[in-house]
Amino acid sequence: MASLNGKTIIVTGAANGIGRAEAELLARSGANVVFTDLDEANGTAAAEAFGEQAVFIRHDVSSAADWQRVIATTIERFGRLDGLVNNAGIYRPGALEDTTEENFDTQVAINQKGTFFGMQYAAAEMKKSGGGSIVNTSSICGIRGFRGCIAYNGTKWAIRGLTKTAAAELGKYGIRVNAVLPGFVDTNILSANSDEMNQQAAKDSVLNRLGRPEDIASLVLYLISDDSAFVTGADLLADGGYTL
After folding, report:
1. Which PROSITE patterns match (predicted)?
2. What fold does the segment set 8-238 form as a domain?
3. Which of 89, 98, 157, 213 places its Cα 20 to 30 Å from the Cα of 106?
């Protein structure tokens, strides 16, 4: 694996679950890592485990002002920005006829607009560093029409479009943009589903299990590192074969 020594990477939603696994793996691989989240207690504890190599910043990804502050703090602390993992997201079930405007707008603001802001503000700094890598988090809900979560599905389809468009626009600056599409991963987000649904999801995977946060983190490490230097605009599934 290509070294991440000297590189600085922001990971959003890094206090728990997939984001924490991603941030911790990137730090163990040598990167300076900025953990961001709204969960200050868990985010601070996660970052402090890596000493001067990491920092936690409280961060509302739906806020442009917060993004500007996070980027500025990152540059002040580490002097450069080489990577961004747009992991923060929210899942609120709701069918077409039941989804309120507030539910819809909240998921769009965090999942979709948060990803947009992250790419927009990070790209400006990555240009100064001579390039970089952005990894966005879509989902298998971004390639299928799962019933009962229309707003969430819409945001995850949108993230794939944002990813491909940004990849096309930023390639000339040496900035790669890719998306990971996790399947059912064993994190707190699955608590919104019934136990029966999650058990069935594990059975429907050809590997006969739910994903683990570390499964997604390993894929993100590859995409952030120079080992994926010729990969951009890609959708990388990590679903245990669920969508086969």
Report:
1. ADH_SHORT
2. Rossmann fold (3.40.50)
3. 213
